[in-house]
Design a protein that fits this description.
mainly alpha; 0% strand
Length: 363
Amino acid sequence: MRLIKERYFLSLLLTFFIARFITCLFIIKYLSAYDSRFFVFTDLIEYNEAPKGFLLTPNFFYAYFIRLIGYNSENLLNPSSIFISFLVSFLFFIPWVYLGSKILNKKSSLFYSILIGLHPYLALYSLKIDSTSFSILPVAFFAMNQFLPSYKLKIISLWTSILSSFFRSQTIILAWIQALCLFPKLKFKISKVNISIFFALVLLVLCSLSQYDYGSNIVTENFGCYSFLNIKNFFLSLNINKQLSNLFSLILTPIVHIFLLFGAREAIGVFCINLPKEIASNGFINITSTIIFFLFHFSLFIKMIAWIFKNNCKRYIRLLIPYTMLLPNLYGAAHMRYILFLIPYFMFWLFEIKQENQDSLAK
């Protein structure tokens, strides 16, 4: 029986690999016809030029990692760079395929593996080593611990989130929530587990302090076309007084940013919806794909929330914890790259989750 399950999982993994590989080939062949820039990764320059070994560098381990492997904007399109990027992304998605094999029936888990492989935005970011990709793994382990709960997995999930925070500071929020949820269940005595948790918390505090300025800048930098400041200036241009403009902007900015997070490519966040021809050669495809992405992602999010409240179990609300990682983006930078770690998560709600896993979640 165990051998059959292992073969089944490997077949799902192979299915995911083939689907992702085909999508990547399609992107490599045709993306340049739509976006003449093909790949743009301006942040790589900043990471490579940051002071070497400086702990206050944004996403410190990520900056060190790309320097270690010699990854930069000049060799971004080299076959070796694309291969490494694809391999890293593939490894990050293994837990998602595994979880799908456990909480979905055979037919559903097969389609799930195909769909996360075919998803164009996930495939696009599997062709470059972006810091956002390092938030995919901790959310996978978090979800795994919710549906397949065990104390050991809870500790592994906490460590994964904390170590990932050094690669992607966005994960700090998830790590702190996991740590705080763990405190009430701790028995204060000397043990291997408690020592492990102590060192994990030391690292989490260190990471939080080192990334504080960077996180503050993300929220207050007024990034892109639809920033809080630009929305406020829009209301001011309508001769609405400053106080009301501030109030309207506070309300409208998160709504606009939710649309951007669930549907807009990064260029839209920077240049607005009507992109220049060199960035989007076909305006209809640009607007249509944005709407389709938003409707697909946001409808799954709504379906997930409806499922949680339909089952009328307060403990199901824990499933929403990873969404707290988006809180800074409600007023900071906002586009679809920031929800990469959530896409394989809410795609589970395309299918019916096994009753036994719903029961485990409710405990």
